[in-house]
Write a structure and sequence with these properties.
27% of the residues lie in helices and 19% in strands. The protein is α/β, with parallel strands linked by helices.
Length: 368
Amino acid sequence: MNANLSSRPYTAVLVVPTGIGAAVGGYAGDALPVARAIASVVDTLITHPNVMNGAQLYWPLPNACYVEGYGLDQFAAGRWGLRPVHRNRIGLVLDGAIENDLRWRHLQAADAARATLGLDLTDYVVTDAPLGVELRRADSGATWGTIGQPDSLLRAAEQAIAAGATAIAVVARFPDDIEAEALQDYRQGQGVDPLAGAEAVISHLVVRTLRVPCAHAPALGPLPLDPSISPKSAAEELGHTFLPCVLAGLSRAPGFVVDPGLRPGLRQANPVLWADQVDAIVVPASACGGSALLSLGGRSLAIAVEANTTALAVSPEALGVPAVRVASYLEAVGLLAAHRAGVAPQALTAQVRQIKALTPSGVLPLGG
């Protein structure tokens, strides 16, 4: 969508936090339809892998910025800018704990992305020690995790960068002994993704330390066939790897600009996107404690979607964040379209309040 010459481009941020059981976006790329709809009514959409990744399914959005969560928080806080790229060269980092057969499945997925999609990858790197991923679950039901060998991950990522990589895809071996009840709930579209919290830890570490785009795909043994799988989780049942969506997303992920000399004053010469160019941010109404919303909520239109329930109970009102509550993402898309068009939302309803006179002590009716 081209911006009107009388206005600047319209930029929106879509956030669905990972590992909190979001009704939309808590499963296998099930927030991707939301991203597609929002991208159609804005000039630039900034979102993160949890929204865009659907295992072997993905959808290219030319006006979307695929930004890892830690990098998105830094961008929203005004500390980092986002520089568009034509193409990234992706470094593939494989956990040393991945078994030989499973490793070959991922290497074949990488070769398929090169031959079929034309993506640019360096040769792959295997970590010099098993990463030791462990999964955790909070009392709220949200998931998180740890890695036992973070230095091994960083060494492998640095080796890929030295070979010319400008973005990093990580495949870590995740435990197969996931709690049976939690896994079954997730596969039925009812629970919290048991892997998501640990995935975020992995990508955050790489982005925070090395300041390059990064996303993660878990390596898991095959699960038994279950004809009752929820459509929301079905994308993860399609094959041996979740890597294709990660490679597609990273291929055009914007670079991070942290040089103070490239702050907003030099935008004319450097097409870098900064936080003060964001017009709106869309979040679940019960998950408003994230850094991106707290940074942007005071100066951009904040839209809180009530239908996207989560395991959390953090409202915008509890944090003092001014937000417009909407019932659904359909309503959010309409509000974004009106906001971009400069149309007051009240004008789209049957009731428009009569204009009143402002006084130092309050508002009086006209002629009062």
